[in-house]
Amino acid sequence: MRVVIQKVKQASVTVGNKLISAIKNGLLVLVGIESEDTENDIDYLVRKIVQLRVFNDENDVMNLSVQEIGGHVIVVSQFTLHASTKKGNRPSYIRAARPEFSIPMYKKFVAAMEDALGKKIETGEFGAMMDVALINDGPVTIIIDSKQKDF
Fold first, then answer.
1. What are the residues facing 14 on neighbouring strands?
2. Three-state secondary structure string covering 77-102
């Protein structure tokens, strides 16, 4: 499982000209799921995301987590995070899990994030063409792959 985390001043998801979710001051999390992913990958990533210290403290140092500031989170599924560009110029998405596996995993990821934060989080719409808008704060963008754990 791979995530791209962006610290945002605001973020939103629109599907078919309809705003379906929006947040202010928090994290936009793009998540890509592989068929080899397990609930251990979810647990690892949720723990890392919730505790990631990327928000400024009173001394203007990135020392606080989204949980500590009471920030918001929006999670958007994105199979293209597993694109392979080894051959040619057309990306291959063979590593991305099929919907019958990735939809339940995505729902488990969202539920685990809500449990960890103790509040509802916003989401995109799985499989839909989405317009994702954001104002990146910093900018701060971090990539974490659960298969490359740093112990």
1. 19, 131
2. ECHHHHCECCCCCCCECCCECCHHHH
Cα-Cα end-to-end distance for the chain: 17
CATH topology for the 2-146 domain: D-tyrosyl-trna(Tyr) Deacylase; Chain: A; (3.50.80)
Q: Would you call 14 a catalytic residue per the annotation?
A: no
Domain ranges of the chain: 2-146
CA 87 → CA 20, 83, 93, 102, 117, distances in Å?
A: 37, 11, 12, 25, 41
* pLDDT, tens digit, 9 for 90 and up, residues 44-83: 999 999 999 999 999 999 999 999 999 999 999 998 898 8
Cis, bond preceding 139 (omega within 30 deg of 0): yes
Considering 38, 80, 85, 123, which one is annotated as catalytic?
A: 80
| Residues 98-110 pLDDT 10s | 999 999 999 999 9
